[in-house]
Design goal:
single chain, about 300 residues, mainly alpha, two-stranded antiparallel ribbon, 10 helices
Length: about 300
């Protein structure tokens, strides 16, 4: 009963937190003259990736590298296959040309780099420094090259409304972290009671649990007509997972590569790569492409369950 309450309570907190984060981030984008895409790639992506950071650092320090790595790989697979797929099934997502020209190729490059760094058996502190440096460089470049929008609506921008937006973002991120950890703790406890292995837990239950903020946030954003925030959230979260979360985790504690199969790597990189032609065609992710992504994810999860 406590495990079930943890899962349900975590999901409810995630939903409320996602609403607060999207609303606050949208207002900040307007007031700073930044496009919703940049906000989705940065503030929203960082906020929804916070549970992955907490889980990965906690797992690595406890010596559970399998959960730390499985969490990131599984989350990146879930972000594209499950989250982007479900979001586009509910409402097709428009894609900015910048996403096709720059952000998706960078995500693919980061995924391949992640795989190559683990070929020597794990992520060292030097690998962590490289990853975090690349993240800072990406964020700086994104901000410098961002198209600034003038506030032509003549909206009154005052200190009080600015603070309200910031408070909404802080509350949203806090609830996403708390709700994500609560959801994951309940799900992991349930999985362990069935004797499921550490890596499978990381690739499936923990990955889906820590990706719940991305799912709820992307759906809320898409329903509000904020397609840029929805797609930016997914691409930005995948970049944060690799460059930020694994980078910071490796700086705190080395990560050993254990029990991650070739199928896991192939699925993560393949979904990242297939997203490029999908986004390029008509600059949108329609329901046909979304169906392919969801079915691919379900096939992958089905295989893992059978193996377990």
């Amino acid at each position: 009963m406590l495990i079930l309450l943890s899962i349900i309570g975590g999901f409810l907190i995630l939903t409320i937190g996602a609403e607060a984060l999207v609303r606050g981030a949208s207002q900040i984008a307007l007031k700073l003259g930044l496009t919703p895409l940049i906000i989705g790639l940065t503030i929203v992506a960082f906020g929804t990736s916070a549970p992955e950071l907490a889980v990965s650092v906690k797992s690595a320090m406890a010596g559970n590298s399998g959960i730390a790595l499985g969490n990131v790989i599984g989350s990146n697979i879930a972000n594209i296959g499950l989250i982007l797929g479900i979001t586009a099934l509910i409402r097709p997502i428009k894609i900015e040309s910048q996403m096709v020209r720059r952000d998706i190729p960078i995500m693919i490059a980061a995924s391949v780099l992640f795989w190559s760094l683990l070929l020597d058996g794990g992520l060292s502190i030097w690998d962590g420094m490289l990853l975090t440096t690349l993240l800072v460089g990406y964020l700086s470049f994104s901000y410098i090259t961002a198209d600034k929008q003038s506030n032509e609506d003549g909206l009154a921008v005052n200190a009080q409304s600015n603070w309200l937006s910031i408070v909404l973002i802080i509350i949203g991120i806090s609830m996403l972290v708390g709700g994500g950890i609560l959801f994951v703790d309940g799900a992991v406890a349930m999985a362990k009671s069935f004797g499921i292995s550490e890596v499978i837990i990381g690739l499936t239950i923990v990955a889906i649990g820590t990706s719940m903020p991305e799912l709820v946030t992307s759906i809320v954003a898409a329903m509000k007509g904020e397609s840029d925030i929805a797609i930016g959230n997914v691409i930005g979260s995948n970049l944060f997972n690799i460059l930020g979360i694994l980078g910071v985790t490796a700086l705190i504690h080395p990560i050993l590569n254990s029990e991650i199969s070739s199928l896991d790597w192939f699925t993560m990189i393949a979904l990242a790569m297939v997203l490029l032609p999908f986004a390029y065609t008509g600059l949108r992710i329609g329901r046909r492409e979304a169906s392919f992504l969801v079915l691919s994810y379900l096939a992958y999860i089905g295989y893992l369950v059978l193996q377990a």
